[in-house]
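Recall from the previous lesson that a structure prediction takes nothing but the amino acid sequence as input. Here we apply that procedure to Threonine/homoserine/homoserine lactone efflux protein from Rugamonas rubra. The sequence below is the only information supplied.
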Amino acid sequence: MDALMPLIPLMSFAFVSSITPGPNNIMLTSSGIWFGFRRSIPHMLGITIGFGVLLGICAAGIGALVMALPALQIALKVAGSGYLLYLAWQLRSMNFDRQVEAAHRPMGFMAAAAFQFCNPKAWVMAITGGAAFLPQNLPVALAILLYCTVFCAVNLPCISVWAGAGALLRRFLADPLWQKVFCAVMVALTAYSALAIWL
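The prediction returns the following tokens.
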């Protein structure tokens, strides 16, 4: 237990930053509703592994260099917000017909992992976490490995909650009226996430 005490601040930061709303969690809620929890697992794993790689890059100091380049920051924002607006456009006509569902596929592992590098919230989390919570008094490589492992171990259950919530909501959205209402809410939240990137 004493060995875990120095990691509690990191675990707390990982929990708060992972459980709060953001592009990944909104996308996972949509995936849980549309495809169910089980089919969303590759999406969840892609987020966590991709984010773990991003954590390692930022902890090694590359993240600060990236954030020091205004043109690259803008490129990240354009890519991230563009994808979210595309997702919002797709969600506008979301329905729960089994035949329509069969014609679509959930986001795969590689796409979800790659999206982390276009997600400004992920960059902020990774850079802030690396600057504030990288374990001290350890060899650098071991400190980065421990930091990434702990963060990812907290992140995966947190984002799974959002996919699970979507899967639960799926059961209550048989009524076409509620489907339309829910789709409108999800489109608004996704579009807001895209715009919030620029705020």
